[in-house]
Design brief:
The structure holds 2 protein chains of 2 kinds. Chain A is mainly beta. Chain A has one domain. Chain A has 2 helices and 20 strands. Chain A has a 20-stranded mixed sheet that branches. In chain A, strand 5 and strand 6 form a beta hairpin. Chain B is about 75% helix and about 0% strand. In chain B, helix 14 packs parallel to helix 16. Chain B folds into 2 domains: about 120 residues, no CATH class; about 140 residues, no CATH class. Chain B is mostly helical. Chain B contains 16 helices and no strands. Classes of the chains: A mainly beta, B mainly alpha. At the A-B interface, strand 11, strand 13 and strand 19 of A face helix 10, helix 12, helix 14 and helix 16 of B.
Chain lengths: ~290, ~290
């Protein structure tokens, strides 16, 4: 059956979930997407304008998507501005004898091509909570603009995560991971640490908090300007920046905001923790 | 004079790099002996080939030993094949060769070492290793140094190509790898520097941009890129990137660019945090 599906599925699968359910305020839908090349590398690209995303790694070759959407009714400065402008240009219509019908349509686009999966919800007035089960080996790229947090658990592939308003919380991962938030925290727990490529966690105004499993070997680089650093590592952090000193008699340059590094278990691939005003926490795990 | 003694002498003379002198010193008796013994001549030639193919440029002892080891192993294996062919040809020819008794040649010895006998294999590997180690002990000369710097250049070129390739990848982590590779070169390739600055201007990942700025600190001179970096620093909207660009220019830029940047403290288009940073940096430099 699986083979038939993979064969009959066109190279590009677009599943547009458009459903009007009887639930007034929210719509819920699950969808199972078999990969066209089971056992091979998987890359998943998720872009959500508003909502929350939870990704759970499992040993399988199907992507299980569960989506819950609701109309966004909160405050959104950008959206308000647009609405106000539009409302001003419209004359008020009579609603006498009419019932208000909540818009509960779900718009979520899923596309698969040769194990490259794209999931997107870019509707600004829709809040979508996504729970997605993905093969553990998946490489994942996520952009979440507004709404809740981005949670990831048990994914071994490369992660590239951006969340503008919510936190990024990743557990039981091995990287490489490149994550960025504006004002919210990044909390990552490494069960292992890949040697293939560097990792980097950047929060402009939030905290960065990592926990390294005992067996992890890495070079931890830290850089913060106004925040503090709290470390549970055995080794101390030392400045690694190469400072160009002047010749004798010339003035010496003093560098502010340089990079410091600590080697964990003899050192390994680099993981950089960067924040402007947030604190950096480095913990030892089990 | 035994064959083995002549072989030992040959190895010693090659290791001491005085083969020419030794050749002149060869006694007539020895030369006559060699003329009559073509097999031994081949063996000596074979040993010389080992030497002339030696990977001398590698200076790191372990690397050099490895290189010698594998090279000799490879030569020995090819010799084994050659020897097998010879043997087959000999079997099909006349009977008198079989009846003729002659000392085992080096080629035959090597062949026997590679027979599937664990002890012989171990002994072969140990011998090859020891010879590699001995060859490694030879002093470096100017040719070696030249070859070594040539090898370094080749490695640097390969690293540059690798870095440039990685910088074009879709994954931010791979681009970070590209930046790390670029740091392993001396950033002497202007194309690589150009690519780094291009990426610094447009990459969406703050991590990649900060890593690039850190790498650019290893440049000997910003040269014509300095003005561009200055403009980037002034126009940048990302606070972390802007501060790091300012730090880069204030630490490693020319005197003129430092003055220009310090003047920007009074300009309102810079973020307050950046102005504060430049002020702190300027004050620190006067301490």
């Amino acid at each position: 059956m699986k083979n038939t599906l993979s064969l009959t599925l066109p190279l590009t699968l677009v599943a547009m979930l458009a459903t009007s359910m009887q639930i007034v305020s929210a719509a819920e839908k699950s969808y199972s997407l078999p990969l066209s090349k089971p056992g091979e590398p998987v890359s998943i690209d998720i872009e959500v304008y508003r909502g929350s995303i939870t990704l759970i790694g499992y040993q399988g070759d199907t992507i299980e998507i569960s989506a819950k959407t609701s109309t966004f009714a909160g405050k959104d400065k950008d959206l308000k501005k647009v609405k106000n402008k539009m409302n001003k240009s419209r004359s008020a219509r009579s609603t006498e004898g009419l019932k208000s019908v909540k818009n509960s349509t779900m718009r979520l686009e899923i596309e698969e091509r040769n194990n490259e999966v794209e999931i997107s919800s870019e509707v600004s007035n829709q809040h979508v909570d996504l729970v997605i089960k993905v093969p553990q080996r998946s490489s994942i790229e996520v952009e979440l603009y507004k709404g809740g947090d981005l949670n990831i658990d048990g994914v071994n592939g490369g992660l590239e995560l951006e969340s503008y308003e919510g936190m990024i919380i990743a557990n039981n991962i091995s990287g490489p991971i490149v994550a960025e938030t504006a004002r919210t925290d990044i909390v990552v727990s490494f069960s292992d640490f890949t040697k293939t490529s560097p990792s980097s966690l950047t929060s402009h105004m939030g905290n960065v908090d990592i926990t390294l499993a005992k067996k992890v070997a890495a070079n931890v680089n830290i850089q913060t300007y106004q925040g503090e650093v709290f470390s549970g590592l055995d080794n101390d952090f030392v400045v690694v920046d190469e400072i160009k000193k002047g010749k004798k008699g010339q003035k010496q340059e003093i560098v502010l905001g340089g990079i410091m590094q600590a080697k964990v278990n003899g050192g390994g691939q680099v993981i950089s923790l960067i924040s402007y005003s947030g604190n950096l926490y480095i913990r030892k795990g089990k | 004079m035994k064959n083995q003694q002549i072989i030992d002498w040959k190895i010693a003379s090659l290791a001491n790099d005085n083969s020419n002198e030794q050749s002149e010193e060869l006694s007539e008796a020895l030369q006559n002996y060699l003329k009559e013994n073509t097999q031994l001549q081949e063996e000596l030639l074979f040993i010389e080939q080992f030497w002339t193919n030696d990977v001398k440029p590698l200076v790191v002892p372990s690397d050099k030993m490895d290189a010698n080891f594998y090279q000799m192993l490879s030569s020995a294996q090819s010799t084994q094949q050659y020897s097998s062919q010879q043997e087959t040809a000999q079997q099909h020819s006349s009977h008198h060769i079989a009846a003729q008794e002659h000392p085992l040649s080096l080629l035959e010895k090597i062949k026997s070492w590679f027979m599937p006998n664990p002890i012989a294999q171990f002994a072969t590997l140990a011998l090859v290793f020891v010879v590699g180690l001995n060859l490694n002990k030879t002093p470096n000369n100017d040719d070696n140094n030249l070859a070594y710097s040539g090898l370094q250049q080749e490695i640097s070129s390969l690293t540059t190509v690798l870095a440039m390739s990685m910088l074009q990848k879709d994954s931010a982590s791979e681009r970070l790898s590209g930046v790390a590779y670029s740091r392993q070169t001396d950033l002497s390739n202007p194309l690589l520097v150009e690519q780094l600055i291009e990426l610094l201007a447009r990459d969406k990942s703050t991590s990649v941009r900060l890593a690039i700025i850190n790498s650019l600190g290893h440049l000997k001179s910003f040269g014509s890129s300095e003005q561009r970096l200055f403009i980037l620093a002034i126009q940048e909207e990302n606070l972390l990137v802007q501060i790091e660009l300012c730090r880069l220019l204030l630490n490693y830029g020319s005197v003129d660019i430092k003055k220009l940047l310090t003047k920007q403290v009074n300009q309102q288009h810079l973020k307050p945090e950046v102005r504060e940073f430049i002020q702190a940096q300027s004050m620190a430099s006067y301490i």
